[in-house]
Specification:
Elements (H helix, E strand, L loop, with lengths): L1 H13 L4 H13 L16 E3 L2 E3 L3 E3 L20 E7 L12 E4 L4 E4 L8 H9 L7 E5 L8 H12 L5 E5 L14 H15 L8 E5 L5 H14 L3 E4 L19 E4 L3 H12 L6 E4 L5 H10 L3 E4 L1 H6 L2 H16 L5 H4 L9
Parallel strand pairs: 3-4, 3-13, 4-7, 7-8, 8-9, 9-10, 10-12, 12-13
Antiparallel strand pairs: 1-2, 5-6, 6-11
Length: about 350
């Protein structure tokens, strides 16, 4: 009780300063050992296998929280079943001008327009070589803003970093790099993925490759993406990234440009997830608006085999990870499921 109170006070203090500065301070506290960590969270019901990866639980950390892999030793001990770092581009880049991160506390949401700010693939490759080997760690691949061949950028990052990864994610869905989402078109996506898979073939061992898509896609777009993903050998699809849409929001920052994440994204992203699950047998990773065990369970029942979260941590802190997993385990037990796989898709019809 005292620990949770102290964490709540710390979260309140961080929310009182600039969001990007607060995020940097949170990472510093994590690296310094100031944040209490529960360690590995695992139960028979929560153990998950996806795309050949054995996870202690299905709840992963989405890309963007640890863009530059500076807390690789600590994040797996925060209870996550897997951790995705990045996005990483071939060359370092500063991203878009600040301010570029906005809290919407009245909506339990965030808007960001970072623009793939990161230290570049050389720095990332060096940090990944020192990663803990008892955790599942992946990298979000990105392209430089000024690149004239973005497909080559994705392949280049994979070649540089792939040997020290458990999975890699092709991110063609960020709204904050101009025209990046154009790569979700059928022909462009196939050409991009073929180059990524050629780079994968050069690695010392086969690496699962995931594809991260936007929530702002129609039925025809989803069908095309599913077909291309299967044809090119993608191992799983992450649904979804942030949205450029603006549902009914209350907070003053609602009109800021960028990608919206958090609670208002939940319905949109879950409907895309459910629809996608009818179009492909590929495993799906559900992300977008998860803030509770009930949200996590709804994603699984809509068709997700694993999950990711990020924005809810802004409001609930790292203790939220353990709370969601404990509640999810209880919900699985309540409904008589022996494992996550038994529950996948059982509530899909509610979202179609």
């Amino acid at each position: 009780m005292i620990r949770r109170w102290a964490e709540s006070v710390a979260m309140t203090a961080l929310r009182g300063i600039d969001p990007e500065t607060a995020h940097g301070l949170a990472l510093t506290a994590l690296r310094s050992g100031l944040a209490p960590l529960p360690g590995r969270i695992e139960t028979p019901r929560l153990r998950t296998r996806i795309a050949g990866l054995d996870l202690p639980n299905p709840l992963g950390l989405a890309a963007g929280f640890d863009k530059n892999a500076t807390a690789l030793a600590q994040l797996p001990r925060a209870g996550f079943g897997f951790v995705e770092v990045g996005a990483t581009t071939p060359r370092p880049q500063p991203g878009n001008p600040r301010p570029r991160l906005f809290r919407l506390p009245g909506d339990r949401a965030v808007i960001n327009r970072f623009g793939f700010n990161n230290d570049g693939m050389i720095a990332m490759a060096a940090r990944l070589r020192d990663r803990p080997r008892d955790a599942v760690i992946g990298l979000n691949l990105g392209a430089n803003k000024t690149s004239t061949d973005r497909a080559a950028d994705f392949a280049q990052v994979l070649r540089a970093c792939g040997a020290d990864l458990d999975f890699a994610t092709v991110n063609v869905s960020s709204p904050n790099t101009e025209r990046l989402r154009d790569l979700q078109g059928k022909a462009a996506l196939r050409a991009l993925l073929e180059r990524v898979m050629a780079a994968r073939a050069e690695l010392p061992a086969r690496l699962p490759v995931f594809l991260k898509i936007a929530p702002d896609l129609d039925a025809a777009d989803l069908a095309d993406i599913a077909a291309v993903a299967e044809a090119t050998g993608v191992d799983a699809i992450i649904a979804t990234n942030t949205t450029t849409a603006r549902p009914a929001l209350r907070d003053w920052a609602r009109d800021q440009r960028g990608g919206l994440s958090g609670a208002p994204l939940f319905d949109r992203s879950t409907r895309v997830l459910a629809r996608l699950s009818t179009l492909t047998p590929l495993p799906l990773i559900g992300v977008g608006g998860i803030g509770s065990a009930e949200d996590a369970y709804a994603k699984i029942r809509a068709g997700a085999s694993a999950l990711q979260l990020y924005t809810a941590l802004v409001y609930g802190g790292l203790p939220l990870v353990g709370e969601i997993l404990a509640g999810l385990d209880d919900l699985l037990a309540r409904d008589g499921h022996a494992c996550i796989a038994d529950a996948v898709g059982t509530g899909r019809a509610d979202w179609l």
